[in-house]
Design goal:
Length: 254
């Protein structure tokens, strides 16, 4: 007897009593047993709506809210339910505005978090200049589940081992400032295109939309000065400004 749905496909494929008391008895989508995944897969082949109803009946709310993605990735494409949407992630600053890098108090964002410190996303020549992740420094969170949300001001970025590198404590400030400079180079890109040879850190900051000098961190001021030196030294090369922040020597960022 199945009284919680009138879906014809569910009634035809699930040949057993499913009482209302079974609702929400599976903790998360990753906890579905193999036989239940296969049963849901059979339903999905005939009715995506039916598969969604099945999953949202059995899986505890709110962990069933991702049912549509699970249906596509696991039931239709054959992914493993146990490891679905379980990833190692680097927790990095969430660049919400053009001034995030200028104002972020980097270390304070990670206070009270117990993940592995410190790592950065390796910058690569093929990176999009607009992307906020290359060179970002953060803490490594293992096996982040699909329902996990990063703390306020932070974002989870999925990584594999080859994507990140360890940052020595002595190099932490330099690595953070390099990322700040890289983001500045994106937001001030129009200025840098016109004034590579003679720009200053203060001019770069003023060229960033929304920049407020009263909110600037010391790290941002150092990064801006280093970026200006990179503009003078590398402004005519093919790597600038796409790899700005990662070109100059470490002493510029100290």
């Amino acid at each position: 007897m199945i009284s919680w749905t009138t879906n014809e496909v569910i009634h035809r494929i699930v040949k057993r009593d499913v009482p209302e008391s079974d609702r929400g008895t599976i903790p998360t989508l990753n906890d579905l047993p193999d036989w239940m995944v296969e049963e849901a897969r059979q339903i999905a082949r005939e009715s995506l709506v039916g598969a969604g109803k099945y999953l949202k009946f059995y899986v505890s709310a709110p962990y069933a809210d991702w049912a549509d993605d699970f249906i596509q990735d696991v039931l239709l494409d054959g992914g493993d339910a146990r490891t679905w949407n379980v990833h190692d992630c680097l927790c990095i600053p969430d660049e919400l505005t053009s001034t995030t890098a200028l104002e972020v108090h980097y270390r304070d964002l990670f206070q009270g978090m117990d993940s592995e410190r410190w790592f950065r996303i390796k910058p690569k020549s093929a990176d999009q200049h607009s992307a906020a992740s290359p060179g970002a420094v953060g803490i490594l969170s293992r096996e982040v589940r699909y329902w996990h949300a990063a703390p306020k001001g932070l974002a989870f970025f999925r990584v594999q081992a080859q994507d990140v590198e360890f940052v020595e404590p002595a190099m932490l400030d330099i690595a953070m400032r390099r990322w700040i400079a890289h983001r500045m180079s994106w937001w001030a890109r129009k200025h840098l295109e016109l004034h590579r040879a003679g720009t200053t850190g203060d001019e770069i900051i003023r060229a960033i939309p929304g920049a407020d000098a009263s909110k600037l961190t010391d790290d941002a001021r150092i990064a801006a000065g280093a970026l200006a030196r990179e503009a003078r030294a590398y402004g005519e090369t093919a790597e600038f400004p796409q790899r700005a922040g990662f070109l100059g020597i470490d002493s510029w960022y100290q």
